[in-house]
Design a protein that fits this description.
Layout: E1 32-35, E2 41-44, E3 50-53, E4 71-74, E5 82-86, H1 88-101, H2 135-153
Antiparallel strand pairs: 1-2, 2-3, 4-5
Length: about 150
C-alpha cells in the first residue's frame, strides 16, 4: 500500500478499531509460478487469475493505465464496508489483453495448454531432463568410504 499525505493533514493520529461484522481475512496469500517448457512462465494468483511472464523475466509492465488498488472500501465501526472503488473488471481486462498479446492461454489443438500433451495422461508438456547415469559410481564411492572408516577403527 502506498499513501501520500500532506503535513496539514497530519493534525490527528489515526485510530484503529475492530468491526465485529467483518469476516476474517487470511494473512497468507500464495501465488504459483508454473515454468513452461519454452522458458516462459505463468503466474497463478490466489484468486485463480493467470498472468503470462515472457522468458521467465520480471513482472510485466502493463501498457497504459494500471490501477494500484483493486478495491477501496471505507469501514465504519459496525456494519459492512462501503465500497468506494472497484477496479476488478478493468484489471481483468488489462490482464486478458496482456495474456492474449503473448499467446496465452494456448489452445489445446495447437500446442497444448500448460501440462497438456494432447490426451496422454502420463506425460507433461514435453520437457525432459537427463537421468543421472552415475548412480552406481556414487554407490561405489560411498562403499569405499565406509570401508576406509571401518579399517581405521580396527
Amino acid at each position: 500500500m502506498y499513501t501520500v499525505i500532506s503535513p496539514n493533514e497530519m493534525i490527528a493520529d489515526p485510530t484503529f478499531h475492530i468491526n465485529p461484522d467483518l469476516e476474517d481475512v487470511d494473512n497468507v496469500r500464495v501465488a504459483g509460478n508454473y515454468n513452461l517448457c519454452d522458458g516462459n512462465s505463468v503466474v497463478t494468483l490466489p484468486d485463480g487469475r493467470e498472468i503470462f511472464v515472457p522468458d521467465g523475466g520480471p513482472w510485466p509492465d502493463f501498457i497504459g493505465e494500471m490501477w494500484w488498488a483493486e478495491e477501496i472500501s471505507q469501514v465504519a465501526l459496525k456494519g459492512k464496508p462501503m465500497h468506494l472503488v472497484n477496479n476488478t473488471a478493468a484489471i481483468n481486462t488489462k490482464i486478458e489483453e496482456w495474456n492474449k498479446s503473448h499467446g496465452w492461454p494456448r489452445s489445446d489443438a495447437a500446442t497444448g495448454t500448460a501440462g497438456s500433451n494432447g490426451g496422454d495422461d502420463d506425460a507433461g508438456c514435453g520437457c525432459t531432463s537427463d537421468q543421472p547415469q552415475n548412480g552406481a559410481a556414487l554407490l561405489g564411492v560411498a562403499g569405499l568410504g565406509l570401508l576406509a572408516l571401518r579399517r581405521r577403527r580396527r
